[in-house]
Amino acid sequence: MASHQISPPSLQLLRFLRSTPAFHTFRSSPRAFSHRTNSAHHAPSARYHRRPFSTNFHRSSPPQSNPPKSTDRGPQSEEDTMTDFGNMDMLSVAPPPTTWIDACVSDGFHFGNGLKMTGGSGCLLVGGEAFTWRPWAGRADGKKSMLNGKGQWDAQGSAWGLLDVVWPKPELLILGLGPTMLPLSPETRRIINAMGIRVDMQDTRNAASQFNLLATERGVGDIAAAMIPIGWREPR
């Protein structure tokens, strides 16, 4: 049996293969693929470093103002165009009401006309007249108290008999509830509103000041007041 020997490639064949693009691609592709695969397996893990949050904000200090060294405002002006604020007080020339409250004392009231109510009685001011008022007397439960079971200021129907018969009725009734401010019971508010009178309640000191102002501005016919002394204490 005859043996066949493979002859070595010719020089022309080797030159042709070197100049062919497919030959270069075949030789370079395995190396590139191997390099990429090894890089993916041996690449170090990525590490992220988080910077700490800083709370040291820069705050600019407010400008420092220096107090004036002198309070001298210069010579007094003699111009005739200066405004006299005293002349702008429209109530300064209005006569005070006859029931102007001059002072609130612990056991009563002093009025601007010289009248004094003492002995622990309250006052009811209607139509320019002052009446002694004791709303805690004559209660149905027999208690000399101004508070109901819920801690609300409560004056029963018998305390408003004068307002029920007077005519014309005032538009506003100012209540002075004693030394402190208290909630008004719905029943008391209903009785007053049923007579066509609006009601506003405060502690006695502020109620007296409000009555003096409104009675001077609007007249004693439109404004009435019912107050108990600032020294009132609930019985134990």
Automatic annotation (TrEMBL):
Biased composition (Polar residues): 53-69
Family annotation (InterPro entries): MTH938-like_sf, NDUFAF3/AAMDC
Pfam family, one: DUF498
Top-level division of the source organism's lineage: Eukaryota
GO BP, sorted A to Z: mitochondrial respiratory chain complex I assembly
An example Gene Ontology CC term for this record: mitochondrial inner membrane
Residue numbers spanned by region Disordered: 28-83
Cross-referenced PANTHER family: NADH DEHYDROGENASE [UBIQUINONE] 1 ALPHA SUBCOMPLEX ASSEMBLY FACTOR 3, NUCLEAR PROTEIN E3-3
Name assigned to this protein: NADH dehydrogenase [ubiquinone] 1 alpha subcomplex assembly factor 3
Species the sequence originates in: Heterodermia speciosa
